[in-house]
Amino acid sequence: MKLYTFHRSSASFRVRIALNLKGLPYESLPVHLSRNGGEQNLPAFKSVNPQGLVPVLIDDEGHSMNQSLAILEYLEETCPQAALLPSNPVDRARVRSLALMIACEIHPLNNLRVLHYVTGELGVTEEQKNTWYKHWVELGLTQLEQRLSQEPQTGRFCHGDTPTFADCCLVPQIFNAKRFECDLSNVPTVMRIFDHCMEHEAFIAARPERQIDAS
Amino acid sequence: MKLYTFHRSSASFRVRIALNLKGLPYESLPVHLSRNGGEQNLPAFKSVNPQGLVPVLIDDEGHSMNQSLAILEYLEETCPQAALLPSNPVDRARVRSLALMIACEIHPLNNLRVLHYVTGELGVTEEQKNTWYKHWVELGLTQLEQRLSQEPQTGRFCHGDTPTFADCCLVPQIFNAKRFECDLSNVPTVMRIFDHCMEHEAFIAARPERQIDAS
Fold this sequence. Notes:
2 copies of one chain form a homodimer.
Chain A lengths: L1 E4 L4 H12 L5 E4 L12 H4 L9 E3 L5 E3 L1 H11 L10 H18 L5 H9 L5 H25 L14 H15 L8 H10 L3 H4 L11
Parallel strand pairs in A: 1-2
Antiparallel strand pairs in A: 1-3, 3-4
Helix pairs in contact in A: 1-3, 1-7, 4-6, 4-7, 7-8
Organism (chains A, B): Noviherbaspirillum cavernae
GO molecular function, one term (chains A, B): glutathione transferase activity
Enzyme class (chains A, B): isomerase
């Protein structure tokens, strides 16, 4: 398989973790989101994904897929081991809802194109932009903390004692939050799970600075 | 089953469509997002969902689930007919990625809490807020149009000739876009599919103005 990826892209990071957890080898095809005016906007990549977003997974039959959570579901369906979703539908719903809390409520407000719009079109100051960033991350992570600390299904990972889609989404979000110096002191359960994930080779090997395009 | 819902909430609307398409009866429990300072913030609802977001589905065994796309997956797994995902994993990935383009790239930037922050904390004008809204909707729908008009899997619905998760997400987004008077003249394939959906009773019965809390 081939993965169009950018080392700092959270969505690419999610897929790299899932591929590693399943032990699936893949070739990294880097797309640098801030070099050359954004390589995602060049014709070469637009022909792969007209939306201009990474990640894009090309499977062994040449099928092209985008949207990180759709790719995770595809990997789960075609390569069930190691399972990244529990077997029970109610538990599966819990894992997916934790993943979506990150993918729909936190991350979309803080990606590059939105931050550019906030400073460019809305003309807010650098400080307001950072406040915006921290607001959505800290709000989202606090709500995640509330669930993870109170729901009995939480284990060493977000759901039980093996990694799931939720952990694939959580880890990249924390990397981002640290880069923007968000306050993480109020989310001890989130950080306990993050630290546990980062002891595992599948997560370590997916880190931004371990990618071939890390500068 | 019971559904905590708000008539104008796009995420609730998605779930109402899916329940109707599968012929599953449910009781609507309205949570008015702008009355009483936002009923989602009252203790009565916070005990149901500490995140304060609708929809929440309570299944017949009393399990509580949130995040609309996680609920759709749960319904698909527990009540496979009518199928809202194709059977082939590559096609399923396509449907999910279309749904996620709406759920992750368009909708999160335009919900109430974000619009409040933009006018409140960032202090932008009403006009800038409307420009913000239209920017993300029109950009996202243009990208969706590009895919739907070019990919051969598109049929009378987003994928083939029966409704899927993608249509459950598309219809509420168009309702919202119309409410904010977005320009929809450049997305003819999107609108052709929308019009086709709105001929079906499952979609019609899920419309905001057909809900018991519509004012």
